[in-house]
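User: quick one, sequence for these C-alpha cells?
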C-alpha cells in the first residue's frame, strides 16, 4: 500500500496543548533538505549557506544498501509510506548524522533521502534536535542547551508516516543505542486528531544496542486520498538528556499476517515436563490490616502462590499461604526520605541488619526496587547508579554478616532498563566479591512488548552473564522476573497472562511476580495496597475478575504437566495429566489461549487439539474406547475489570472417541484474549 506525498502534518497540533508544531520532512535529493529543530520553535534550514551546500555536494555518498528495484517479495510484507519503496521484508539503507547547531559550519556526511519528520511543540526557542533519517535508520543529536526537565516527552519527536487498516496488527522493530542513558517512547498512533494511539512502549537506551519491538492492532484505517487519516511511528524524545546522540538502525515496519492457517495444538501425555509454577504477586494485601484483612484465604489458596514480593511486615502472612517471601529491603525508603549515604550508610546498615535478624534464611532479600528510576532512587539530588551499587554493597554485606547463606536478589531494574546496566551491576559484584543468587528484573511494562523479544532478552542474559565463566564468582543461579504485566487492560486479559507465564516458563525463569497498578475503573486506587491481589479482585466488592480464573486454571496445571505445543504462535497451550498416584485418578486438562500479550490477539477459528499417548493417563485403560470432555471459557470483555462469578460452560459430557491411544477435538473457536479449558475424564 502506498501513501500520497502530501504533507499530512500541515495542520497538526500538539496532542496535549493543541499548539501547531514546526515540521521538517526529511526528504529530497542528497542533503539539499535537512533541518535543525529547536525545542519550542522549529528552526528549519531547508537550504544551507552556499559554501556549505557546495561542500556537501562535493562529498561522496556513502555506500548504502537501499531497497532493490523489482526485488522479489520472498518474505513478510513491509508497508512503507513512500511510492519509491516496494513492499518487502526489511529496508537496509543507512544514514549518517546531521550534527548539532555548533557544527553547522563543518561538512556534513551525505545521507539518503528520508521519510522521518521532526516535530516540536514546546515554544521555548532553545535548540532541540539535529537529525537526519532514512526509512531504515536515523541519527539524532540532542542540543547541549536542551532542558529535558522542562519538556514533555512528546515535545521533541521524529515521526514517519505509515498506512494501516482497521483490525490488522502491525509491528515496528529496530535497534537503538545512545551515547548516554536516554529514555524515550515509541508510539503507533493516528497522525491527526484525536491522535488515537494503538501501541506504546517506553525505552531506555545506552551504549550497548537495545532491540526494540512494538506491536499493536489499529482501530482505524488510513487512506491515500485523505492525508489527515495517516498513521505514524513516533519517537518521542522530549526527555532525552542534553548532548545525547542516538542511533536507530534496521528499522522495520510490517503487517502481521491476518489469516494464518488454522491452529493445531498437540498434547503428548507420555512426555512429562517440570516447569516451575510461576504464580506470584507483588504486595496486593490490605495496607490497613495486612495481618488478617483482605484478601480472604478462599481467594488466595486456589492460586497456589510460590513467591510473593512484599514488605517485611507482610512476610509472615504470605508465607502462611505457601509462598516464599521476597522482602523489599528498600520499601518505604525512597526519595524524598534521606538518602542511604547521607549518614555514611549508618541507618541503612542498621535497617538491613534488622531485617536479616528477623527473617534469617526464610526469605529472599531484594535489596532495592528499580534503582534506575527517579521516583525510587535517582530523584535524590546527588543520586547516581554508582551510588546504588554502593548502597547494594552495604546491604549485601550486612545481610551476609547475619545470614551467610541468605538468598539475595538484584538489581530489580525497571522494565525499560538499559542492558548495559546489568553488566555494570555484575562487574561491580564480581569486583567487590558480592554473591547474588537471583538476577532480578522487571519485564513487560507494556503489553505491546513482544514475548519473542522478552525471550530473546532472557536468552541473552543467560549467555552473556549466567553462562559466562567471567561472572561465575557472583554465583547467579536463577532469574527472577519480580514484576511483570502492563498497566491498564493488558493486566486483565486472561490469555495475555497465560502467554506471559508460558513464555517465562520456556525461558527458564524461576520466580515471577505480577505487578500492581491503579485499577482501570478506579484511578488513584492502587491494587497493591487494597487487598485485591494486584487487581485480580474487584476494588470495591473483592470478587474475582476473569483474570483471577486464568491464574486459578494455571495453578491447577502444576501437578503432572505434560508436553503441549502449538502450530500457531497466536495459540498458547498448556496441559496437565494430574498426579500419577491420585485416588480417584485426577482429570486431565488442556488450556488454550488466544495470545494477546503482543497486542495482536485475534479470533482463532477451526482450532484442533491432537491428544497423544492417552494410555499414560491413570484413568485410561488399554480397552478404553472413549473419554468424556467438558469445555469451559474465560472471556475477556474490555476493560476486564468486571466481576466474573464462574467461567462459561461451553460444552458438557462431550464424547471423545479414542483410537489406538489417541484422540482429537476440532472446530474450536477462541475470541481475542479468551481462554478455553478442556477437562478429560473417564466416560
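Assistant:
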Amino acid at each position: 500500500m502506498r501513501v500520497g506525498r502530501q504533507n499530512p502534518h500541515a495542520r497538526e497540533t500538539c496532542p496535549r496543548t493543541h499548539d501547531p508544531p514546526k515540521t521538517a520532512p526529511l526528504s529530497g535529493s542528497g542533503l539539499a533538505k535537512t533541518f535543525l529543530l529547536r525545542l519550542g520553535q522549529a528552526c528549519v534550514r531547508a537550504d544551507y549557506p552556499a559554501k556549505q551546500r557546495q561542500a556537501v555536494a562535493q562529498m561522496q555518498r556513502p555506500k548504502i544498501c537501499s531497497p532493490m528495484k523489482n526485488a522479489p517479495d520472498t518474505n513478510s510484507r513491509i508497508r512503507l509510506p513512500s511510492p519509491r519503496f516496494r513492499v518487502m521484508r526489511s529496508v537496509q539503507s543507512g544514514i549518517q548524522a546531521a550534527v548539532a547547531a555548533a557544527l553547522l559550519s563543518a561538512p556534513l556526511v551525505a545521507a539518503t533521502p528520508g521519510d522521518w519528520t521532526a516535530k516540536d511543540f514546546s515554544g521555548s526557542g532553545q535548540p532541540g534536535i539535529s537529525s537526519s533519517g532514512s526509512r531504515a535508520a536515523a541519527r539524532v543529536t540532542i542540543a547541549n542547551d536542551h532542558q529535558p526537565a522542562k519538556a514533555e516527552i512528546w515535545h521533541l519527536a521524529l515521526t514517519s508516516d505509515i498506512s494501516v487498516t482497521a483490525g490488522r496488527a502491525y509491528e515496528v522493530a529496530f535497534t537503538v543505542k545512545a551515547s548516554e542513558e536516554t529514555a524515550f517512547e515509541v508510539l503507533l498512533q493516528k497522525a491527526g486528531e484525536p491522535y488515537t494511539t494503538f501501541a506504546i512502549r517506553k525505552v531506555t537506551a545506552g551504549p550497548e544496542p537495545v532491540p526494540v519491538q512494538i506491536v499493536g492492532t489499529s482501530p482505524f484505517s488510513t487512506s491515500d486520498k485523505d492525508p489527515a487519516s495517516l498513521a505514524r511511528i513516533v519517537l518521542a524524545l522530549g526527555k532525552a538528556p542534553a548532548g545525547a546522540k542516538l542511533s536507530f538502525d534496521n528499522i522495520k515496519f510490517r503487517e502481521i499476517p491476518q489469516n494464518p492457517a488454522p491452529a493445531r495444538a498437540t498434547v503428548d501425555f507420555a512426555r512429562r515436563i517440570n516447569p516451575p509454577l510461576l504464580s506470584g504477586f507483588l504486595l496486593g494485601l490490605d495496607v490497613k490490616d495486612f495481618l488478617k484483612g483482605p484478601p480472604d484465604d478462599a481467594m488466595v489458596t486456589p492460586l497456589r502462590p510460590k513467591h510473593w514480593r512484599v514488605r517485611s511486615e507482610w512476610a509472615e502472612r504470605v508465607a502462611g499461604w505457601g509462598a516464599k517471601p521476597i522482602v523489599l529491603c528498600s520499601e518505604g525508603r525512597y526519595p524524598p526520605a534521606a538518602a542511604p549515604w547521607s549518614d555514611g550508610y549508618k541507618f541503612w546498615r542498621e535497617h538491613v541488619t534488622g531485617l536479616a535478624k528477623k527473617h534469617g534464611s526464610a526469605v529472599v532479600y531484594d535489596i532495592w526496587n528499580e534503582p534506575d528510576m527517579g521516583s525510587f532512587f535517582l530523584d535524590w539530588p546527588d543520586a547516581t547508579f554508582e551510588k546504588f551499587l554502593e548502597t547494594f554493597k552495604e546491604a549485601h554485606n550486612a545481610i551476609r554478616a547475619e545470614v551467610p547463606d541468605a538468598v539475595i536478589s538484584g538489581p530489580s531494574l525497571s522494565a525499560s532498563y538499559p542492558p548495559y546496566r546489568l553488566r555494570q551491576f555484575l562487574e561491580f559484584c564480581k569486583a567487590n566479591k558480592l554473591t547474588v543468587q537471583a538476577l532480578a528484573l522487571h519485564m513487560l511494562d507494556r503489553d505491546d512488548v513482544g514475548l519473542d523479544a522478552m525471550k530473546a532478552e532472557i536468552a541473552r542474559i543467560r549467555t552473556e552473564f549466567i553462562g559466562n565463566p567471567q561472572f561465575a564468582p557472583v554465583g547467579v543461579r536463577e532469574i527472577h522476573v519480580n514484576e511483570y504485566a502492563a498497566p491498564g487492560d493488558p493486566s486483565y486479559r486472561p490469555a495475555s497472562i497465560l502467554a506471559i507465564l508460558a513464555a517465562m516458563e520456556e525461558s527458564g525463569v524461576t520466580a515471577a511476580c505480577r505487578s500492581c497498578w491503579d485499577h482501570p475503573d478506579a484511578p488513584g486506587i492502587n491494587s497493591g495496597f487494597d487487598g485485591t491481589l494486584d487487581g485480580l479482585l474487584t476494588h470495591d466488592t473483592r470478587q474475582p475478575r476473569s483474570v483471577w480464573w486464568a491464574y486459578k486454571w494455571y495453578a491447577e496445571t502444576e501437578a503432572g504437566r505434560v508436553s503441549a505445543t502449538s502450530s500457531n504462535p497466536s495459540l498458547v497451550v498448556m496441559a496437565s495429566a494430574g498426579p500419577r498416584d491420585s485416588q480417584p485418578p485426577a482429570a486431565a486438562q488442556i488450556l488454550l489461549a488466544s495470545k494477546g500479550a503482543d497486542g495482536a490477539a485475534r479470533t482463532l477459528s477451526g482450532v484442533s487439539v491432537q491428544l497423544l499417548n492417552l494410555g499414560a493417563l491413570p484413568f485410561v485403560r488399554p480397552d478404553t474406547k472413549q473419554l468424556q470432555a467438558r469445555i469451559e471459557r474465560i472471556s475477556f470483555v474490555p476493560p476486564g475489570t468486571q466481576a466474573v462469578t464462574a467461567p462459561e460452560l461451553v460444552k458438557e459430557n462431550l464424547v471423545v472417541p479414542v483410537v489406538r491411544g489417541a484422540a482429537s477435538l476440532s472446530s474450536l473457536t477462541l475470541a481475542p484474549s479468551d481462554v478455553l479449558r478442556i477437562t478429560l475424564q473417564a466416560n
